[in-house]
Amino acid sequence: MLDIRLILEDRLKIEDNLARRGLNVDLSNIVYLEEERKAKLQLTEEKKSIRNQVSKDIGRRKANGENPEAIMEEMRILGDEISEIDILIRDIELKLRDELLRLPNLVDESIPVGVDESANVEVKKVGEIPTFNFTPKDHQDLGVALDIMDFERANKVAGPKFVFMKGLGARLERALMNFMLDYHGSRGYKEVFSPFLANEDSFYGTGQLPKFGEDMYKIEDYGFFLIPTAEVPLTNMYRDEIIKEQDLPIKLCGFTPCFRSEAGSAGRDTKGLIRMHQFSKVEMVQFVKPKNGEAALEELVESAGGILSALGLAYRVVVLSTGDIGFGAAKTYDLEVYLPSYEGYKEISSCSLYTDFQSRRSRIRYRNENGKNQLVYTLNGSGLAIGRTIAAIVENYQQADGTVRVPEALVPYLGVDIIG
Fold this sequence. Notes:
The protein has 420 residues and is of the alpha+beta class. 40% of the residues lie in helices and 20% in strands.
């Protein structure tokens, strides 16, 4: 959520920043509502002050044996006026909050301007793209042939965009989870096993609500949603809390299944493990002081990239343009792994700096050196999406006989060096 003080101080500058996202936003109504709120708040405070003063006078009159009934009747009328104004203030505050909640974060001045992903800028490439002396297959065909993936029976049980991982496929999923958590743990991340459901307040806090409710699965009559990422529970761990300054930075990582409706998705990505209704992921979340936000973002990218390098997978890093960046992010790097079936790169991790956008919505603060409460900066990044990592391993490590070599770093976790 944006700081309303910034909007009041320089509305046109904020509108210009949002225009870089391609949004034609007029913030004049927010300014009007805030001015109305302040005016009515001042009015009710003045009336309450009069009521307090007169109440003391009524007490003195009673002590002197006088009849204050006429003045008391005036105060009853004044009390009704105060109640009416308080109702108007609450109504204005609700309208104001709703408008603010629907505004995306301000984008960092350093990111490229564009209408979509075509404006994203490549930062670097890491690793070597594999070459084959045979025609490589995609991961779905390989997985089915190796009997480690079963899409057909998953479709029978749940529907499209689900999969049964079987045998070494299931073990590979578990091996990757442990490998990723161990790797991030060695880099100072505390492992957290979180709920897979969260309430509405949590989703408002991280920014999925109110705008993206259609992308999630809601448990009707209970007020819960299935989480689309561990970002939601991990960030909301500290909602409505004041963190001790000496405890920053806080670095958390967690494994969860992720549930997404993928409404409207179509095309090539709907085949195989690339775009699923349910998939597994290890997520990284950080809470830092504002001055350390940029450095923390670079560290997130390094941690996610370290997993790919350890697995021997070629990848590239791109900085997202204003037309491709997420609703709550100020700056985002995507890591894209090379997939032979695409003859190109596919996103496998997204690392974002949210500045104080989420912490203002969630009221996550720390007490600074001056004793004042200040909003933290939040960050999160995939470390990594396990299904897409499996797809990358199967495709990049496939052999001519249809078997798949296991990356050396995973052999101790999986217990075999060949799948097949």
